[in-house]
Amino acid sequence: MGCDAENLTPSKLVASCLIGGVLLGASVYGLALALPDGPLGFRRRRKKRPVRVYMDGCFDMMHYGHCNALRQARALGDHLVVGIVSDDEIIANKGPPVTPLHERMIMVSAVKWVDEVIPDAPYAITADFMKKLFDEYNIDYIIHGDDPCILPDGTDAYELAKKAGRYKQIKRTEGVSSTDIVGRMLLCVRERSLCGSPRNSSLQRQFSHGHSQKDEDGGSGSATRVSQFLPTSRRIVQFSNGKGPGPDARIVYIDGAFDLFHAGHVEILRLARSLGDFLLVGIHTDQTVSEQRGKHRPIMSLHERSLSVLACRYADEAIIGAPAVVSRDMITTFNISIVVHGTVAENNDYQKEKDNPYAIPISMGIFKLLESPLDITTSTIIRRIVSNHDAFEKRNAKKSESEKRYYEEKSFVSGD
Ligand SMILES: *[C@@H]1O[C@H](CO)[C@@H](O)[C@H](O)[C@H]1NC(C)=O
Ligand SMILES: *[C@@H]1O[C@H](CO)[C@@H](O)[C@H](O)[C@H]1NC(C)=O
């Protein structure tokens, strides 16, 4: 028995194909989209069409927690479409975003697990938008984290998708949230205004999750950083490409702090990658960053910064804790062809007469200055937060309450 698509309704078609034990043929793939909802598992396995999954979010102050969610979402399908909430929708629902839409687009598109982005997604999935996702974007499943997403009217934002049997859930990434990161920045700014007085631990507690931080600071010189992140070797492996350069590859090296990974970082990595076949990214240690930029930096610890870089599609490999000075030995060890540096950076050390960290590549004639495509630095991001200080503090105080509750109530979390 064959699959005669003309004479059968989609559900009969599947039934008869299954009974006949015949795999669905190429001519039937298009029809699969129109199949009514039902027990999907069995049918999916027989279908060769890639499974398309959808995830949405604001992706404001994007961090490796977002990247990890995208990684998990992508693993539930073959093609990941990401909806990015518009600036207006964020303003209406949570207050002003730190990162405007065009920068959030750059950030999300650069994550190596993302296949497609939709700008201006609604804050909550409406029936209309869901229909559009299913009919126009051919989405099979809508993915969301396991934190409940309750709309102002008390309903579950993903109820419609759940009812349709088209919803899948992933685990929240432990140890980081935008609220926490904004807290670290506000703290750093407030502390500085205290002008050298001892750090205010009540403030610190307010923005951390009620943990007593003491001086556990991951070995950096900074006593202000509040990080709950416990870097595991498995997480690093999940984010790595796990591939070295191919034979004869032209290897490009770029180094820096990559603190609060932003669109400016993405763009300079993209440019650097275009100069060769393999981009090696040197990520400075917390100590190096503190020495160069003051004891309040970095905001994100070495391992947090490394995950953000590794999630970026333009980075092929990272040196987790790169030396501040590019040595001849490093150039030989990694067969580096060219060392690059962006024009927009917080340090312009490449111009230094003395102790220039790029002295060796410069003397070898393999140093290249790249015109940074975007005029954004980590300080830009911090300034944006500070200039909106009051709004963020209010928004943050509210959110950190609910996060504190989450941490108080949380139990063992399994999975990825
Ligand atoms: C720390 O901050 C709290 C809240 O802003 C304030 O009441 C307290 O006086 C501060 N302590 C010091 C030592 O500055
Ligand atoms: C080192 O890099 C150059 C390209 O810059 C390449 O031609 C050469 O094959 C590489 N050497 C090794 C051992 O891979």
Entry keywords:
10 strands; single chain; Rossmann fold; alpha/beta; five-stranded parallel beta sheet; 18 helices; binds 2-acetamido-2-deoxy-beta-D-glucopyranose; 416 residues
Instruction: Supply the CATH superfamily name of the domain at 244-370.
Output: HUPs
Low-confidence stretches: 1-41, 193-225
List the helices and strands in order: HHHEHEHHEHEHEHHHEHEHHEHEHEHH
- Please state the structural category: alpha/beta
How much β-strand is present in the residues?
Answer: 5-15%
* Principal-axes shape call: globular
Q: Distance N terminus to C terminus?
A: 43 Å
Q: Strand order across the biggest sheet?
A: 3-2-1-4-5
Helix content: 25-40%
Alpha-carbon Rg, integer: 24 Å
Number of helices: 18
What integer is the average pLDDT? 79
Distinct small molecules bound, one entry per kind:
2-acetamido-2-deoxy-beta-D-glucopyranose
**Which CATH-level-2 architecture of the domain at 244-370?**
3-Layer(aba) Sandwich
CATH class of the domain at 244-370: Alpha Beta
- How many β-strand stretches? 10
Can you tell me the CATH topology of the domain at 244-370?
Rossmann fold
Protein name: Ethanolamine-phosphate cytidylyltransferase
Region (Disordered): 197-225, 397-416
Catalytic activity: phosphoethanolamine + CTP + H(+) = CDP-ethanolamine + diphosphate
Transmembrane segments: 13-35
